[in-house]
Structure formats: C-alpha cells, structure tokens
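Section 5: illustrative case.
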C-alpha cells in the first residue's frame, strides 16, 4: 500500500464523519456516544467475589505494560507509526496462560491459551473470560461481544461462568455452599480466574450479583439433583437464567442510584456470547449470537482444515429466520426481519440484555419513566416499528458437543470483528503458519492477463519473500489481529496500511472495523491420545 492509500483512508474518514454523526442517533444501539452520565462509575481491578467464591490465580499470566492509543486530531493526524509503536498497540492486551499438565486429578487436554483484543469502539465493547472450575472439572473460555455499549458484555464476563459452575455442582457441594453463606463462614472457591492485568469489575454491584447467584443455586438445591446438571443443560440453563436476572434487575426499584443506573445500562445494552467448556476430551460450545468458535485440525498428511463449532445467529442463517417466523404471527412474516436486521435494527438474532426487543412497550415506558436520566445513561427512548408480539430476541444458546481427537490442535473463539476481516480457513492457515514458524506453501494462481498488474506481481514477490521468515508475534491471537487489520487484498501485511488503521482516532476507527477479541486454546495431543486409548 502506498501513501496515497493512507491519504484515501483519511479522506474517506473525514467524509464519513458527518454521516456517522447522523447515523449515530439512528444506530444508537450499535454506536455509542461519549459518556455524558452525571454519575461516575468506580472501577475495581479485583473480581466481584474475590475472597468469597473464587481463587484469583495470576501467577502464570505474562505481564505486558499498558499502552494507550494516541487520539489524533486533524492537526496532528498522521499514519507513519514506528514498528515499535505498532507492536505496543497490538500487544497491549495480549495474554498467555500455561495450564498445569496435571491438576492432581487428571492430565489436562489443554496446553495453554493465548488471548488478545484490539478496540475500535471507545471504550471497547468486547469482553473475554477464562477460568478453571475448582469444585467440578473443566476449563471455561468465553468471548462476549457487546453492542449499544459495553455494560452488558462486562456483566456477562463477570457472572456467566459462576452460573455455569454452580449448575455443574452436585447437591452436596451446593448445600455446603449455602451452609457457608448462611452461617457467614468461609465459602469454598468456585472459580480460579485467569485474568489480564487490565481487566476490571463492577465493584459497586458485587452484592447484587452474589445475591442473585445465591437465589439460583438455592433453586438448584430444590431440584434435588444428586450429581448436578449435565454440561449441556448447565450451559443452557445458565445462559437463560442470567439473561432473566439481567432483565429482572432492570425492573426492580433500588435505593442506590448508582446500582440502579448500572442495572438499567446492562439491561438496555446487549451482548452476544460464545463459551467453551473443556473437560479432558469433552468439548462443549454454547453460542448465542454472532461470535464464532472453530477447531484447527491437522490431518496425518499435514494438511490443515477448519471445523466450525458454531453457527452465526443472524438473518443470513435460514434456520434462524424460520425460527423467528414460527415464533410470531404470520402477519409479521415480512417485518420481523427487515434489511437483514431484527425489526430492521439489530444484526444478531440471539443476545443477552437488549430488553428493548424483549419487554412490552408498556413495561419499557414504565421503567424508563422512573429512571433518573435516561439520556445521560445513553438509553434512547425509541419504539421499533412493527413491535407487536415481544419477545423477539432470546439468549438461549445453541450447544455443540465434540470429542477431542489427537488431530484437533487448537480452538479459536472470537468476536465477529475477526470474522468480518478473515474467514475460517484464513484463520486456521495463519495459526498453522504461526505454529510452524514459517508460511505454508500455498499453490499460486495461474497468471492470467487480469493478474499481470505491477501491484499483483509486487505482492506475489512479497509473499515469496515472506516464506521462511518467522512471525512478528509470539502470541497467536496477536498474529491474527495483525493480519486482520494489516492484510491487503492478497493476504499480505502492508505496514503502511497497518499503521494507518492503527492511527485512526477512536471515533473514526469503528467505520473501518469492529472491536476484535480472540482466544486461542492449544490442545495437548499426547494426553488426548492417551484418553482415546482408555475409551
């Protein structure tokens, strides 16, 4: 890419800025304005139940210094970032955690996980989580893609794993948990979180979250299920129950205005979620929305392929369109999805929060009338057209089970910001190259007349020169982000394009890409093969 292309990006950004201003109001549920709230939120770097329900293990996290992206103005807008500056931006949120091969009970099927995220929104609307279940077996990994703000995704990242973990606990474990709470004794930890140093939690709502989690495990106790729920049922019930609690919290009057405001923001914003539970060779993936999970598979002959574990829940999914039309009267068949959006507004057709697509008009009006200042909370009062038979949106996940095999090398979970830029096969190829340290040999297309341009020949030479050169990044998730942002049309990173895309100020970056959040889980093939022999 030449400097001319950099200028085109800037020129396009300037032209589109005013369009963005107009669209921002109409798309307020997707693109948030700067926070004008009159109340301030306090952030804590400690999980909301630290010392109560979890063990905060951070000893294996590889620390990285925090780097804040420069916000350019027209006066100092430039694209020429130094390579070290580019690396600082790309690596600011990367994480690598090595899993103990033996946990005292079983040999782990997971070697390590690597994660990273790059914001386009300010603040980033994506969240990620990773944790080990301490009272039951298994590792949990999750990606949460927020819209209309980050608050719903943030809430999911703190809470959903607890709901899943207690759902998997036996009757005896749950009774011990309740006994400790009731008698104010030390509560056995439920999760060991594997957090990045920049992660934060909503400290002010900790007691509210714990209270509702406790109500949930009390109901589980009443089920009198001696061994706990199956993984599939635990994932399904946890998704649906947490979404129900988010809805309830948005309706219930609260004395604390700060907690009340936050509960409203969580309920009226939204988030999609993709969660993986890995227990030895048993992999379950729960998905609600348009995040995606795929497996990287290497066959005996060395070739790589992708195995999708999720389906995007949007209007391009024919089964989802059929489901929506069956759930609503025939008179709404042409209006439930318009312009490839739910009611002409929302891209995903499954999501947490988003009570504007779930509550009745009367309930929405009643709740918002009693709110302090909905405009300050970035909650806009609008009524979707053709809104007759809510709810139109569900957080019920689609569950996929897969028994791990030695040829399954890694799992990629990512928000749609990655999949907008790279397809499944490209992601697997890039990670395979990253694992091997060199670019894989890819058959080069025949040079037709259309392909004899100087630009094409130059990029072909760049590809050939790149073979045998090691990756810029040690972290696989960072490697993917670098390519997603910096690749040209031929799949080659162009430093000028990468620099230009990372130089865009936050209010313009969203016009070119979405937030990108990725977690890559690497499997221990030897242990998986051992489990296969014990079958």
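Designed sequence:
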């Amino acid at each position: 890419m030449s400097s001319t292309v950099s200028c085109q990006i800037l020129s396009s950004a300037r032209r589109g800025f005013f369009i963005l201003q107009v669209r921002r109001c109409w798309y307020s549920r997707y693109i948030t304005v700067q926070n004008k709230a009159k109340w301030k939120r306090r952030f804590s770097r400690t999980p909301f139940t630290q010392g109560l329900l979890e063990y905060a293990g951070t000893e294996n996290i590889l620390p990285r210094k925090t780097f804040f992206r420069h916000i350019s103005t027209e006066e100092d807008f430039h694209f020429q970032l130094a390579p070290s500056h580019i690396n600082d931006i790309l690596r600011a949120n990367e994480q690598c955690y090595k899993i103990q091969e033996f946990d005292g009970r079983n040999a782990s099927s997971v070697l390590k996980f690597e994660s990273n995220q790059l914001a386009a929104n300010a603040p980033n609307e994506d969240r990620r989580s990773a944790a080990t279940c301490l009272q039951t077996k298994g590792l949990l990994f999750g990606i949460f893609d927020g819209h209309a703000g980050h608050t719903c995704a943030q809430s999911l990242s703190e809470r959903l794993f607890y709901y899943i973990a207690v759902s998997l606990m036996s009757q005896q474990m749950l009774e011990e948990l309740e006994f400790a709470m009731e008698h104010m004794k030390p509560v056995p930890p439920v999760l060991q979180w594997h957090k990045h140093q920049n992660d934060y939690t909503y400290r002010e709502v900790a007691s509210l979250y714990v209270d509702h989690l406790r109500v949930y495990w009390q109901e589980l106790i009443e089920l009198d299920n001696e061994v706990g729920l199956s993984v599939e049922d635990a994932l399904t019930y946890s998704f649906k129950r947490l979404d129900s609690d988010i809805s309830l919290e948005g309706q219930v009057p609260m004395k604390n205005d700060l907690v009340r405001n936050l509960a409203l923001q969580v309920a009226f914003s939204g988030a999609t979620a993709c969660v993986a539970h890995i227990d030895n060779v048993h992999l379950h993936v729960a998905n609600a929305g348009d995040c995606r999970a795929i497996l990287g598979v290497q066959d005996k002959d060395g070739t790589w392929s992708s195995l999708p574990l999720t389906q995007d829940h949007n209007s391009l999914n024919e089964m989802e369109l059929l489901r929506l039309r069956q759930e609503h009267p025939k008179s709404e068949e042409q209006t439930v999805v318009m312009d490839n959006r739910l009611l002409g507004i929302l891209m995903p057709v499954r999501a947490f929060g988003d009570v504007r697509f779930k509550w009745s008009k009367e309930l929405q009006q009643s709740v918002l009338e009693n709110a302090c200042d909905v405009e300050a909370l970035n909650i806009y009062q609008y009524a979707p057209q053709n809104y007759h038979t809510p709810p139109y949106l569900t957080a019920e996940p689609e569950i996929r089970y897969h028994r791990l095999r030695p040829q399954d090398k890694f799992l990629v979970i990512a928000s749609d910001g990655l999949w907008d830029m790279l397809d499944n096969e490209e992601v697997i190829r890039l990670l395979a190259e990253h694992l091997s340290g060199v670019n894989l040999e890819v058959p080069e297309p025949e040079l037709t007349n259309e392909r004899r341009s100087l630009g094409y020949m130059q990029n072909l030479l760049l590809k050939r020169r790149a073979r045998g050169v090691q990756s810029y990044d040690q972290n696989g998730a960072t490697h993917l982000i670098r390519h997603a942002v910096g690749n040209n049309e031929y799949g080659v990173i162009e430093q000028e394009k990468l620099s230009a895309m990372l130089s865009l100020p936050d209010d313009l970056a969203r016009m070119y890409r979405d937030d990108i959040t990725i977690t890559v889980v690497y499997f221990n093939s030897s242990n998986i093969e051992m489990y296969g022999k014990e079958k």
